[in-house]
Write a structure and sequence with these properties.
119 residues; mainly alpha; 3-stranded antiparallel β-sheet; 5 helices
Length: 119
């Protein structure tokens, strides 16, 4: 039960994570991609929020921040939920693929000249 001085979502968040404030894995951040887990796992027994995460990720990958926005929950809570779902195999979480580094054209031209000279 929330009081007049207490934010309405504070107790609910505590309940959603079973009182935990830290995810089981320390690899999740705002840009972590959340995707469906291998196979079609049964979602019976999952909380409504966990089921919603699984449903959101079925079409493809979403960033953890996007999942939090869709759920209307704080990212700290979603990290705990996604970690639990990853542990159970319902979703997969991984870092995004970084952009390729900018190619140094001068280096490539020197390399090409060197290859031509060695022939």
């Amino acid at each position: 039960m929330t009081g007049p001085d207490q934010p309405p979502g504070l107790v609910r968040g505590y309940v959603l994570t079973g009182g935990r404030t830290k995810p089981s894995r320390n690899t999740l951040d705002l840009v972590t991609l959340v995707m469906p887990g291998p196979g079609d796992r049964d979602t019976t027994g999952l909380t409504p929020e966990e089921q919603r995460v699984v449903e959101l990720c079925r079409p493809g990958a979403l960033a953890l921040a996007e999942v939090a926005a869709h759920l209307g929950l704080a990212t700290a809570l979603v990290k705990v939920i996604v970690a639990d779902l990853t542990d159970s195999g319902h979703v997969t979480a991984r870092a995004p693929i970084p952009k390729a580094a900018h190619t140094d054209r001068a280096l490539l031209e020197r390399l090409l000249r060197g290859l031509h000279n060695s022939l």
